[in-house]
C-alpha cells in the first residue's frame, strides 16, 4: 500500500494513453480527417499526418512505460520506468496542449491541462 497513490496515477495515465493510442490506430483515417479540419489555416496545416503519427507513438510509449513502471514498483520497489512513463506523458500532454492552443480550441486545452495536473502530481509522488 506504500505506493498506492503513484500506482493509481500510473494506471490513470496508462488507461488514458493506451486508449487514445488504440483509438488513433484503429480509426487513423477518421482521426486524420477530423484533425486536418481542426488545424486548417494554422501552421500545422499540411503537417497533420506526420504530427498524428508522432503523437500516436508517444501515447503508446507513455502508456506502456506506465504499465511497466507499475510492475517495476511492485516487483523491485524501483520507479525508473514509472518516472519515464510520467515524463513521456507530460511531454505528450504539452504537445497536445500546444496543438489545441494553436487551433484556438480552448475547451480542449483546458481538458488537457487537467490531465497534465494529474501527471505532475504523479511526478511529485515519485520524488
Task: Give a verbal description of the structure.
This protein is mainly alpha-helical and 127 residues long. The protein contains five helices and no strands. The longest helix is centred in the middle third of the chain and has 29 residues.
A few lines on this structure:
Helix content is 84%, strand content 0%.
Q: Descriptors for this entry?
A:
transmembrane helix, DoxX protein, membrane, 5 helices, 84% helix, 127 residues, mainly alpha, single chain, transmembrane
Layout of secondary structure:
Elements: H1 4-26, H2 28-38, H3 48-76, H4 80-102, H5 106-126
Helix pairs in contact: 1-2, 1-3, 1-5, 3-4, 4-5
Radius of gyration over alpha carbons? Answer: 15 Å
Q: Biggest sheet: strands, sense, closure?
A: none
The structural class is mainly alpha
The number of distinct β-strands equals 0
Overall tally of structural domains? 1
Helix-strand topology string: HHHHH
Shape: elongated
Give the helix proportion (percent range).
over 70%
- Stretches with pLDDT under 50, minimum 5 residues: none
What share of residues are in beta strands?
A: under 5%
On the 0 to 100 scale, the average pLDDT is: 95
**Helical run tally:** 5
End-to-end Cα distance: 17 Å
